[in-house]
């Protein structure tokens, strides 16, 4: 397994893990956004730019959800 494939597998695995834990804390929503950004980088590095664009958008959506959730927390 080459380093780029390993990076992509770790990024997508982190996305799955942090998405599953989002209900526990806003920190996991932020971590999910970071994992989406890493997955986006993987997509661009691999040459699959549509995947990179979609993951970058998901990262933006997750950042917005994190901001909203953080401001609503007591």
Structural account:
It is a single chain. The protein is mainly α and 74 residues long. The chain has helices spanning 3-21, 26-46, 49-72. Helix 1 packs antiparallel against helix 2 and helix 2 packs antiparallel against helix 3. The chain starts with a helix and ends with a helix. The mean pLDDT is 95.
Task: Report the average pLDDT across residues.
Answer: 95
- Terminal Cα span: 46 Å
Number of helices: 3
The tally of beta strands, per DSSP, is 0
Q: Strand pairing plus helix content: what structural class?
A: mainly alpha
Gross morphology is elongated
Helix content: over 70%
Beta strand %: under 5%
Radius of gyration, CA atoms, in whole angstroms: 13 Å
Largest sheet: none
Low-confidence stretches: none
Order of helices and strands: HHH
Summarize the structure.
With 74 residues, the chain is an all-alpha fold.
Strand and helix layout:
Blueprint: H1 3-21, H2 26-46, H3 49-72
Helix pairs in contact: 1-2, 2-3
């Amino acid at each position: 397994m080459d380093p780029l494939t390993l990076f992509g597998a770790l990024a997508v695995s982190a996305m799955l893990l942090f998405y599953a834990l989002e209900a526990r804390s806003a920190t996991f929503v932020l971590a999910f956004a970071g994992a989406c950004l890493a997955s986006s980088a993987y997509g661009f590095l691999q040459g699959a730019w549509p995947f990179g664009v979609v993951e970058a958008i998901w990262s933006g959506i997750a950042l917005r959800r994190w901001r909203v959730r953080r401001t609503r927390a007591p």
